[in-house]
C-alpha cells in the first residue's frame, strides 16, 4: 500500500500561504511504503541456559523501531533491536513489533524457544544449530489393544522437523517428537526410526523394534524392590593389628552413592566384635520379603576352609574365628529374611589363616537364589589400598564407586570393576576380583522401589529408621560467668558425630572467650546407631 505525505503541512495551511504570497506552491510528496518483514524469527529447541539469538528483518519508510514481547504480553527489557539474545531457562513464546514514524506497525510471526531439561553432554562445543539427538526411542513390547508410545528429542536451531518411519515407510501423520498409537494391533509391529531435520542437516535415530503380543506372551515385568537397605562397616583403628587408612573415605563415598540409588544406608566405623554383631542384627531386622539388602565391609579379614572372616578392632593377636565375624553367616541371615537380592561386597584380604581351626557351622538353606558375593581379591591373596590423589582408597572400592550407579545387572557392574582393577598396574598379578552369584533375574542396584502391598512393613522400617538416625538437638549452654555457647551436631557416619560449638554471648565481665572441644568425651551414651559425645568447653 502506498500513501502520500504532504511535507508543507495541511491543505488549509497551504491555502493560507498562497493568499499571503500571491503564489501557489507545489507540495512535496513522499511515497510511504507499507512495512514488510522480509525475514521472520524462527523457533528453536535448545538445552537449559543456552544462549539464543532471535532475529527479524523488515523494510519500510524511514527509521524503523522494534520491540520484542513474550507470550504474557510483557515487553522484553532491552528488546528494542532487530536481534534479541536471551538465555533460555524455560519454554517461552516471543513476537516482535515493527513500527515507523507514520503510525504504521506490523508484527512478526510468533516463535517458540523450547527448552529441554535433559542431558546435553554430547552437544558439540561449537554447535551451530544442526539437529542433535538427545533422546533416542527405545524398543517396546506392547500388549495388543494397549497404547504404544515412542519418543525422541533433539536440539536444533531452527526447531527440527520430525518424520517417523515404520519398516522403511514414512508415517505421514506422525511428524512430532512423540509417536503414539492408542490401540496397538499386530500391524503396528515392526522396525521404527525417525528422521530429524532442519535447514542445516538431517539426522536419523537408531532403529528400534516394536513387538505387539498377546497378554500371555508378555515378558516378565522389570525387577523392582520393595525397599533397599545397606550396612557399611569400615574398621581401621585396630588395638592389636596394623591400622588402615582407606576405609574411612571408602565407606563415606560408597554411602553417598548408595543413597543416590535409593538405599537406606547405615555407615559405621571401628566396631568391636560385639558392636559388629549388634549392627548386623539390626540390619537383618530391616530386611524382609522383596527388599534389596547390601552388606559392605572394609578392613582386615582372612579365609579359612571356604569361610570368610571379618576382623573386629578388638581382636587379639593372634585371633581365632570366635574373635571375628563369619561372612557366610551374614548371608545366611539375609536369605532367611527372603530378600529379593542379597549382596555382600568385601574389600578385605582372603589370606588363608587358622587352617587348623574348625570352620563355623552353617545350616544350608533352600537354593532361593539372587545372592551375590563381590570379593576384592581371590583366595589366599591380599587386597591393597593406595594413595590416590592425596587420599587413601582401597583399589577394589575405587573402581566399585566408579561403576555402582550404572543401571545394569549387579554382576555386570562387578565385572566392569574386575576389568578396571585387572588393568591397574599397581596390582597386576597381585590382586584380582572374584564374583560368586546365584542370580535368577537381571536385578540391578538401580532398580526402582515399589511399595505396593508392602506398606505395613515399610512403616515399621520407617519408624526404626527415624529412631536410628535421629540426631541430638541443638543445645544452648549458659555458664555462671554469663557466657552462652550453642552446640549443634552433624552425622559424618552413623556412629560418628561432628560437634560444632560457637559463643553466642560473652557475658558482662568476660573479655575474651574461645571454645575448645576435647578429643575425648567426658561421658558416652550409646544410642541405637550413634555414639553421642559430651565435650569439655574451655574459656579464657
Automatic annotation (TrEMBL):
GO molecular function, one term: cysteine-type endopeptidase activity
Domain of life: Eukaryota
Coiled coil: none
Domain Caspase family p20: 226-303
One GO term (biological process): proteolysis
PROSITE patterns in alphabetical order: CASPASE_P20, IG_LIKE
Domain Ig-like: 131-211
Region listing for Disordered, in residue ranges: 1-20
SMART domains per the UniProt record, alphabetical: IG, IGc2
Record-given protein name: Mucosa-associated lymphoid tissue lymphoma translocation protein 1-like
